Structures are given as C-alpha cells and as structure tokens.
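Good day; I would like, with your permission, to put a structural problem before you. What I wish to show you is a protein chain and, alongside it, a tokenised description of its three-dimensional fold. Please examine both parts with care and let me know of anything in them that strikes you as inconsistent. Thank you for your consideration; the sequence and its tokens are set out here:

***
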Amino acid sequence: MYTKHAAVFLYAISPVHMGAGQALGVIDNPIQRERHTQHPCFAGSGIKGAIRHAWQALGGDADHITRILGPEAGSSELHAGATSLGDAQLVAFPVRSLKGSYVYASCPTAIERARRLLSLLNINLAWPDLPDVTDGHCLVATTTVLSDGKLYLEAFEYAATESSALQSIARDLAQRALPAGAEYAYFQSKMGTDFVLLSDADFAYFAEHATLVEPHVRIDDTTGTAQDGGLFYTENLPPESLLVAPLMASSTRSGKDDLPAEVVLGHMKMVLDGKLLQLGGDATTGRGLVVATMVEG
C-alpha cells in the first residue's frame, strides 16, 4: 500500500516530443494527449522510464534502482517496485502574446484538476475560488499583459478582467512548481504576473493548435538530396509548459533490507527535486528537457 504521497511538477525548458505514434492527420508524429480533453500529457510509464535511465547520473544509488522502481522486464526477481508515478496533466501552456512575449495560459478545468490532484496528495492549498470565464473573455493575474485593456494572443482578442484570486493561484504555483534559485527567479516572477485564465474551449484551441510543429526531410545517402516522400512533420510540446504528476511510495518489497516508504520518497526527492530530466524522443537534438520539482504531501 502506498502510504507517502508527493506531486512532481515538470517544467519544459526545451521542446518535448513525448510521442503517441504515427497518425493519419497532417502531423505524422503527434505528441501524447488525453483522450477526453485533448490536452497534451506525459504517460507515467514514460516518466518512470526516464527516471530509471537517469537514476545514477542524478546521484541515485545503483543498489536501490530495482527495489524502488521495480525489476526490469525479463529479470529473475519477482517483486513490485515501491513507487507509482501517474500521468502528468497540463497545468499551464505558453501562448504567444502581443505584450510580454508569451503568457502562461490555463483554464478552469486544468486549474480545478490540479487543485483536486494536489489535495488528494495531502498538499495543503489555499487557492481561492475563481470567477466564471466565458468564451472570448479571460481573467488576468495582472494588467501588464494587456494592450488598451485587451489581451491579444496569436491573432485573437480577449476582453480581460484582472483577478486577485487568479494572481494568488499563479504566485502559489510559481513558488511550488519551479525550483528555487536565481536562474528561475525570472520565470517565477513572470508566471506570477503573466498568468491568464481562458475558457475551457478557448484554451483547448491553443493546447491543440499552438504546439511546435517541425518539418523534417529524409536525405538520400547516395545522392545527398531529399528523398521523394521524405517530408514528415513532428509535433512538440513548447518550452515553458507546466505539467504535474502524482508520485506515491510504499515500503520496498524485495524481501531483504527493505526500506520504509518515507526513505523511498526521500531517495526519489534526492534524485528528482530541482534536477534536469530528458523525456521522450529526439534526445540527440536537444528535445525533452524538463526541470522536476517535487512537493511532498
């Protein structure tokens, strides 16, 4: 039984291609998305695999990998790991803005799902209730992102209302979701001020259509020219996206020198908190860099 809980915030600092396989649409290599919201997500299995791969490089003890994360496929050891990592859900998505370069956009569904998850993980929150927001309107944490009282995102204009409740949530998220340190101070400050809440429908548009799509061309090794039919498109989650995943821990179950749940969670925090992980594909082209921040319940 999992007795210790934590949340793991994952903040993208490069494009992230957590692939969903080939598709029949315009984008050949789409990213993973939730079926019911179409919000980008990271599968828990992919996050756990990335942690296992980087365990020792991040300072983890090699003797603990199997006991904490479970035996590898085909291993003769028969016991479960002592940690459970869930899928990461979208909290905030960067959208190009006329003022301030970009804003951190979210929506009522994403905020309330984050509130519910953090509460279930026994993380104390003092987030106030948010006013309703309708299509074509938005709430802003501060008016610094407005031009003539309007918010301009990509080619769209939104009537805006300043919300102290949203500012409170944005500042709390910025403090929890990003590591401490001078290198993150700018982004903590920006998330606290340039945070906007769109309606679920308006947010869904950007979450689906404002990702980074890159064309790739296969080159013929013999001729050095592009192959016929070699053009394909790969989708990436943009940098500055924020997701959160649940992490639960139990005592190890290897049958020898077992560790209690609080020690397991301590090892996970030592390996993850404030560290750089690589998730998903295209690692050799700098894709998949995320900073993890672990918040205990």
Summary: The chain has a mean pLDDT of 92.
